[in-house]
Automatic annotation (TrEMBL):
Keywords, in A-Z order: Ligase
Entry protein name: UDP-N-acetylmuramate:L-alanyl-gamma-D-glutamyl-meso-diaminopimelate ligase
Pfam annotation, one family: Mur_ligase_C
EC top class named in words: ligase
Length: 330
């Protein structure tokens, strides 16, 4: 999102993104300007360097989006990740900028550990705020220090994308892009492949591909879709594929994460180290646990009707389920 805003402003940034942005059609480019945008996380650098990758990047402008426990194969607990984030904050120069939402307690704790760089905040009570004009987040006004900067109208949905937009505008302003120009760019933003990407529409049934593999990401994605489509039925198909999921680090949050769906089909791979069926049995949404793609397709085929929205969530290829399901629904 930030790379696109800088591109729209004529700054031709280099970038490295964990997906393929539809505005660029490539996930990375070097560029030949002073600007480079990196999508980074706290995963370790290498087997011989267990520090988070981002401590090596030395950014001048840093957006800290959110911070929850993840990567259970690397970190023992949330405070261990917070320490890595503080290492990152300490690398940002005094003329730089740290941007974070007001709604993330873990990030607030990181800043309280010590920050010698200017900070701007987004969200309720922050310097950057959004005034929703549509409940699904597809239209909203942007305010900076109480002053209206413009109105974003885009194809994106979800409160998480509105929050991302505010952080993007703050970072772009720090490197010279006036917010009104940033708002124009956001209105032309086309997201990243595998981020609620519509991959098929068959007999009035819409299939989406999404990279969500954490309870918070699952919940915000489904909430955004629900607010966009109203009462239309949603079937979520979820593969717990990440290392943290396989270890069961997020299992307690899974039943509540799908509350906006009408039905959920869970895939239980053979190497899952915990009882998925028992975990989701007490949830408020009807759930089915399958151990094969064929069983998933059969279940979804029996339940989907014209007007149904199917969201397939995995951080992998899911065995080509998207195409196989679309073919079966014809």
């Amino acid at each position: 999102m930030l790379a696109w805003v800088l591109e729209h402003a004529g700054m031709s940034p280099g970038f490295l993104i964990g997906g393929i942005p539809q505005n660029f059609a490539v996930s990375a480019r070097l560029g030949d300007t002073p600007f480079f945008v990196v999508e980074a996380d706290e995963y370790d650098s290498a087997f011989f360097d267990k520090r988070s990758k981002f401590v090596h990047y030395r950014p001048r402008t840093a957006i800290l989006n959110n911070l929850e426990f993840d990567h259970a194969d690397i970190f023992p607990d949330l405070p261990a990740i917070e320490r890595q984030f503080h290492h990152l904050v300490r690398t940002i120069p005094s003329e730089g900028l740290v941007i974070h939402p007001t709604t993330e307690p873990a990030l607030s704790r990181v800043i309280e550990m010590g920050c010698w760089t200017p900070v701007q905040t987004t969200g309720e009570g922050g310097q950057w705020q959004a005034r929703l004009l549509s409940e699904d987040g597809s239209r909203f006004e942007v305010l900076f220090e109480g002053q209206l900067q413009g109105c974003v109208e885009w194809d994106m949905t979800g409160q998480h994308n509105v929050a991302n937009a505010l952080a993007t505008l703050a970072a772009a302003r720090h490197v010279g892009v006036v917010p009104s120009l940033g708002v124009q760019a956001l209105s032309a933003f086309k997201s990243v492949k595998r981020r609620m990407e519509k991959v098929a529409e068959v007999r009035g049934i819409t299939i989406y591909d999404d990279f969500a593999h954490h309870p918070t990401a699952i919940a915000t994605t489904l909430d955004g879709l629900r607010k966009k489509i109203g009462d239309a039925p949603i079937i979520a198909v979820i593969e717990p594929r990440s290392n943290s999921m396989k270890l069961g680090a997020h299992r307690d949050g899974l039943p509540e994460s799908v509350s906006q769906a009408d039905q959920v089909v869970w895939y239980a791979p053979p190497n899952l180290g915990w009882d998925l069926a028992a975990t989701v049995a007490g949830g408020c949404v009807p759930s089915t646990v399958c151990d094969s793609l064929e069983a998933i397709i059969a279940r979804v085929h029996s339940q989907a009707r014209p007007g149904t929205h199917i969201v397939i969530m995995s951080n992998g290829g899911f065995g080509g389920l998207h195409g196989k399901l679309a073919e079966a629904l014809k």
